[in-house]
Amino acid sequence: MRKVLITGSAGFIGFHLARLLLNEGFRVAGFDGMTDYYDVRLKERRHQMLLQNPNFRCVTAMLEDFDALHSLAMEEKPDIIVHLAAQAGVRYSLENPRAYVDANLVGTFNVMECARELGVDHLLMASTSSVYGANEEMPFDERQKCDTPLTLYAATKKANEAMAHSYAHLWNLPTTMFRFFTVYGPWGRPDMALFKFTRGILEGTPIDIYNNGEMFRDFTYVTDLVRGIRLLIDKAPGRPESADDIPEWDSLSPAAPWRVVNIGNSDKVRLMDFVEAIEAECGREAVKNFMPMQKGDVPATWADATLLGELTGYAPQTGVRDGIREFVAWYRDYYAV
């Protein structure tokens, strides 16, 4: 039985990934801080569902607590670590920047130290499409330079990529970073647009639409995302003998067993089309509060997912309307509305 340690296992993506891996026969150890960034009851419910499987165990502690993380890692001795825990949210990084330094920098260092000591077969860590920052050439592909982050959140994630590269080089630690593009779906985070829009439409309260709706996002359904992660688990990068061995489409480092992979739907969706799809599923029109662009936001994201396809033969498949239908059905059931 293969063993996986997932940080952020009570989070939106961590929950879905843990459930997928448990269904495939993995043993999963979860680690989560249960922070109150959003409703802790949602996180607790996710863990309760996972704990129904005897191959799941979890520890509640902050990522900055090295002793707690190290103790779990040494007990479980996982073959694979998937590091998803982080202080998330672009806008919240303007209000509480220290939380991002503590969780995303110190916490990630702690994870890498455990991976190094264990010599895991593969370390996989979450980055974000936000690292593309002020880049204007789209779709974004992994070989582009990402030197213009627009928020501290993006900067910490870019730092994580660099930190991981150094560990991969120094300790021959196979490492894959994945950049997520606007993930949505059932059990999603209440601070995300789909959740807020659905709640506002059903309650008849105004929803804030930034940049007057002139925004585009590459919305990626969570089931597609975790399937991509699952397939990448089996694609640990090796250290190339020379740069000439690296295919033109690959982001593999010439100096380390390290690569970064976009996981996105490869479809640039207009924000107002997204809102209209939610309205259709909810059966009512939104009360729209049009606002200017928020500090740190970007007008568009769009993934080039060629590398994911080359490595795994997989491409996300869920269309936005189908994904929204699944989310709204879950929301109505969970909140009995």
Commentary on this structure:
- The chain is of the alpha/beta class.
- The chain has one domain: 3-Layer(aba) Sandwich (Rossmann fold), CATH 3.40.50.720.
- Helix content is 41%, strand content 16%.
- The protein contains eleven helices and 13 strands.
- The protein has a seven-stranded parallel sheet, sandwiched between helices. Strands 7-10 form a two-stranded parallel sheet.
- The longest helix has 22 residues.
- The chain is globular and about 55 Å long.
Could you write a compact summary of the structure shown?
This protein is an alpha/beta fold. The chain is built from eleven helices and 13 strands.
Please outline the helices and strands.
Blueprint: E1 3-7, H1 12-23, E2 27-32, H2 40-50, E3 56-60, H3 66-76, E4 80-83, H4 92-95, H5 97-118, E5 122-128, H6 152-171, E6 175-180, E7 183-184, H7 193-203, E8 207-209, E9 216-217, E10 220-221, H8 222-233, E11 258-263, E12 269-270, H9 271-282, E13 288-290, H10 306-312, H11 320-334
Parallel strand pairs: 1-2, 1-4, 2-3, 4-5, 5-6, 6-11, 7-10, 8-13
Antiparallel strand pairs: 9-12
Helix pairs in contact: 1-2, 1-8, 3-5, 5-6, 7-9, 7-11, 9-11
CATH class: Alpha Beta
Average pLDDT rating? 96
The residue fraction in helices comes out at: 40-55%
Question: DSSP helix count?
Answer: 11
Within CATH, the superfamily carries the name NAD(P)-binding Rossmann-like Domain
Number of domains: 1
Q: Tell me the number of strands.
A: 13
Shape: globular
Distance between the termini: 41 Å
Structural class: alpha/beta
CATH topology: Rossmann fold
Strand order of the largest sheet: 3-2-1-4-5-6-11
Give a short account of the largest sheet.
Answer: 7 strands, parallel
Percent of residues in β-strands: 15-25%
